[in-house]
Structure formats: C-alpha cells, structure tokens
Fold each of these.
Amino acid sequence: MNTLKRIYVMVYLTGAIILVIKAGQGLDSGHHWIGWLGVLLTVAPIVVILSIAMLTRRMARTSANLPLFIAAGLAGVLLAAWEAHFAGGERDLVYWALAGFAGFLIYVFWYSRFNRKPSPAIAAGNALPDFEVLDSAGDVVSSRALTETPAVLIFIRGNWCPLCMGQVNEMAAGLSPFVERGIRVAFIAPQSVGKTRALARGRPDGLEFYSDTGNAAGRLLGIDNPAGLPLGMELLGYRSETVLPTVIALAAGGGILWTHETDNYRVRPTPAELLTVFDGVV
C-alpha cells in the first residue's frame, strides 16, 4: 500500500501543477473561461497551500478533511459542467475538472491517512523503551539521557517534509514556556547526521535535534513507516523508510505521560496542547 501511495502523491502533485497551468492558459485565452475557472478550482487550492508550506516552512498543520477545498472542488466541477452543457464548452472541461477533484479527494481521504494502530510500546503509563540516536555532532545519545528531565520527543519524517519543518519552526517560536518549566524538547528524524546538523543550525538553545539514521528507534517504538517517502526523494539522500509523525511526552525518568499518534500527516498537536500534558507534573 505504501508503495502505491509514494507513487500516487508524486503523480498527483505533478498532474495538479500541469492542470493549474493548463487552466490558467484556458482562462487567459478568454474562451469558455467559466469552465476553465471550474477546472482551476479543483486543483489550485491544494497546489497553493502545499507551495506555501514548502516555501515558508511555517505551516505545521491543516484541518483533517480540508472542507473549504472540497467545497471549491465541487463548485469547480459544477462550473465546468455548466459551461459544457449550457455554454457550448468542450466536454473535456468536465473530464479535467472531475480528474482534478477525484485526485484531490484521494489525496485527502486516502493518501493523507496512515490507518495506524496505537503502538503498545509507547502507551501512556509505560516506560520508554531504551534506544540510541545520534546528535548533530555524530555522538551517540541514549534515550535514558534524553529523559533525565521531563521531555517531549517529537519524531518527524525529515527535512524534506514541509509540515514537519513547520512544526520545528512553531516549536522554536514557542520554546520559552518549555524551557521555563524544565521540559526538554527534542526532534528525532530518520535521516543522516548531516541533514540533522543542517536542521539544527540557527535554532534557539534548548531545542535539540537527533538522527535515527537506521530508523532502529522508529522500529523499536512501532512508529516506522516502510516506503513512506514520496517517490523520487531518494535522490536528495533520504531512505524510503521513514516514521509516522509521533509525539511522546515523558516524565523525568522516562515514564510515558501521553502520546500523539496522528492518523493524518497534516494533523499535529500545538505547543499549547503539549504544555497542558505537564500541568501538575512540572
């Protein structure tokens, strides 16, 4: 299933960009512009929001089902159908709009979701299993060292993931309350030390970054995601195996207080939500 997803997302996004360009050209021509506007509405919203996420790296989450985008896509299909039926437009307008809208619905309700089951290894009340990661200098750090104080461990897919980078930037901006309460905040990604070093560069003191280079920790904790990397990203030096975005809040000593095992890669907890986990603890 993951293999199909990693192929699908690259094909869909490439097709969506091409369709945006095609619809733009249709609008520019002035012929059957209502129909071409409809086609544009089925693909432009997701292209725009993902472009913003990739370029700004400030977007940490979206709504789960993107209802406004669904409404825009449905409106787009209706506009294309109206143009084709009542205004003499080409029937191809309807086909393009339906293709764009269907691709989007598949992205929202199939690709974005993991259908994951909670991992028993990180259930609240358990002790965090022992594992080792590498810091940005390449030195080995144990999970026991990470949990000498209360801690939040945030497992992200890697530097290639725009929402993961948005989550990093969001935590960097909201780090002060965690530092004041003595809560360690650490990001862990299944990527090379070099990429983690680049990610850590320029970040505020108190925000830590580690590499799980072979994804051993991810597999031990039951949050690994085989073939979770979009097709082609290997060319940038990433492994096809990644992790399911996961947040683990821990008491000093490694007792698990709370976990967030999202079933949708676009849905993640806010820093404020994380802080409330430690109310009454620190």
Amino acid sequence: MLPTIILAATFGLFAATSLQAGVQIRFIEGAPKDRFVLTNVGTCEVEASTLKIDLSQSAGRLIFDVAENGAGVEVYQPLEFVEGVDALRQLPLVVDGQNTIELEITSLAIGDKLAFTIDVDDTIGQREITVTGSEIEGATVSFADADETNTATFTSEALVNVTTKDC
C-alpha cells in the first residue's frame, strides 16, 4: 500500500508541475528603481511571442514614470534591462505616463529570466512614489504567440502566472 501512496504522491507532484507551463512575472518595489522579473517557469522554451504588461486596471492606476517633469512624481527612472535583454527582438519604447509595455520575445529558455527596472507611480494614492502589491493588483499580463493569447491578473502579492502553449 505504501508504494502506491508514494507513486500517487509523485504523480500528483508531476501533474501539478506540468500545469505550471508558462511565465511568471513578479513586481518588486524598490527605491529609486522598481523591478519587473519575468521567469520562464514552464517546460518549454518561449519563442516568437509578445508579453504585454498593462497597468491600466491596477488598483493604484499605475503609470510608468520615465522622464523628469512628466506625469509621475518626484524621482523618475528610465527603462533599463538588467537581465536577459538578448531574449528580446528589440528594446521597447516607454513614453512617460504610459501604463503598458510590450516585450517582443525571440527566445527565452526554460528557467531563464528577463528583468528590467523602471519607476512605477500610482495616480490615486497618498504615496505615489511607493507602490505596494495591493496597488498593482488587477494589472494584467497578456502572452500572445501565433496561435493564442492568454491573460492573467496580478495578485496583491505582486505576482502573476501566465500560461503558454505546450511544447
């Protein structure tokens, strides 16, 4: 009986792991730079796809503050890739005050990360320069390839998992 339980537990772990195919995006509040970290947590290489982060539905109505004297408050920080930039087809353009960014991914291997820093400000809170997980809650991430588009929503833990297609 014990080997059956171990086999069932092992199978359950395998099944749960295989269901996590996709990418995970984590938002990390920082001063003066906030960080987004995209990790390929799936079982397949991510290829020829577009990942869009859309802050428009976030609880704090977040925006990117990338220019002095722009839409944000106090400190601004331009977009800077700190890991995995070679996974992109081209560098995205971010205009001050916009609430979306699109990353055109050519190839991101299993377990690899793509990370960038930028300043994110809220537009309805009392502390616009500090963004909490609850303020990014509701923001969406869409993952699109030639076949389909999948969208998921940031949680109050500043984390989102988006499913990608199987290998």
